[in-house]
Specification:
Layout (H helix, E strand, L loop, with lengths): L1 H18 L50 E5 L5 H10 L4 E6 L2 H14 L4 E5 L12 E7 L8 H11 E15 L4 H6 L11 E2 H10 L3 E10 L4 H4 L5 H10 L2 E10 L4
Parallel strand pairs: 1-2, 1-4, 2-3, 4-5, 5-6
Antiparallel strand pairs: 5-8, 7-8
Helix pairs in contact: 1-3, 4-6
Length: about 260
């Protein structure tokens, strides 16, 4: 089952590269053209060609990246967050982008070749089994990717492994709060790159705690509003009204956590 999920995700993101469109655009995720991403245009280091609109937050906003840091971007796509992180880590830092989709890695490398950055590297690999040495990373970041990983316990255990003692992560991701109506749980398959695999917020934070992280905090949270016209494809008017009043929904959160210095 896990292998099948990964193959579906790889196929979808390969299509995104080929189409040069957002996974949350009309052709990929939903007939409503939902876009969960946040604007990058004003950030230093932004590279338009690397922005495919696949994120759901700005993980570098809370990542506390310092000059000279070694930064790892999990599920780096075409390199959007990598290039932002590179601006923060500076010439003396190093930024590694990890992605399991060959087409994404190829696109990211092509983007980097145009920029000529010598301290940026994109590698092919699985977040659940990273081809990286233990205790080698200062800061890990990720943008709307961990929710797509089938075994989140294993994924966060790997993040813990590769971080140096005293290192930390900043991850933007999709979570659920409250129980979605069954019809919407089924409709979530329409959002292949957006809410597939999303967990309850409390369960998501518990995964991080089990991995051994400390000082876990949610730096930012925003509800992702789905338009009525889309919801009405799956809910009756009465069910929609009940859903709106119940406070249940899909949220983007930015989570921070630290690996102890011991």
């Amino acid at each position: 089952m896990e292998k099948a999920i990964k193959e579906v995700v790889k196929e979808k993101y390969t299509e995104v590269v080929k189409a040069s469109t957002s996974c949350c655009g009309p052709s990929c995720c939903s007939p409503g053209g939902i876009d969960f991403s946040e604007g990058y245009e004003s950030l230093e280091g932004y590279v338009k060609d690397a922005d495919l609109g696949l994120g759901c937050g700005l993980p570098t906003e809370f990542a506390r990246i310092s000059e000279g840091d070694t930064v790892l971007d999990l599920g780096s796509g075409a390199g959007n967050d990598v290039f932002i992180a590179r601006r923060l880590a500076g010439e003396n830092g190093q930024v590694i982008g990890l992605d399991m989709t060959e087409a994404m890695v190829a696109q990211a490398r092509a983007n980097n070749n145009k920029l000529g950055y010598q301290n940026v590297e994109f590698i092919l690999g699985d977040i659940e089994d990273m081809p990286l040495e233990s205790n080698s990373i200062d800061v890990a970041i990720s943008n709307c990717v961990m929710n797509l990983v089938p075994d989140k316990d294993k994924a966060y255990a790997e993040v813990f492994r590769v971080l140096r003692p005293g290192g930390h992560f900043s991850v933007s991701d999709i979570v659920l709060k409250g129980e979605l109506p069954p019809q919407l749980q089924e409709a979530a398959t329409l959002y292949a790159g957006c809410v597939a695999g999303a967990m309850q917020k409390s369960d998501y934070l518990a995964v991080i705690e089990r991995a051994g992280f400390s000082s876990i905090q949610v730096d930012k949270e925003r509800q992702l509003d789905l338009p009525d016209e889309l919801l009405l494809e799956f809910l009756s008017s009465e069910e929609l009204a009940s859903f709106r009043q119940g406070g249940t929904g899909i949220f983007s959160i930015n989570v921070y956590g630290e690996k102890g210095a011991v």
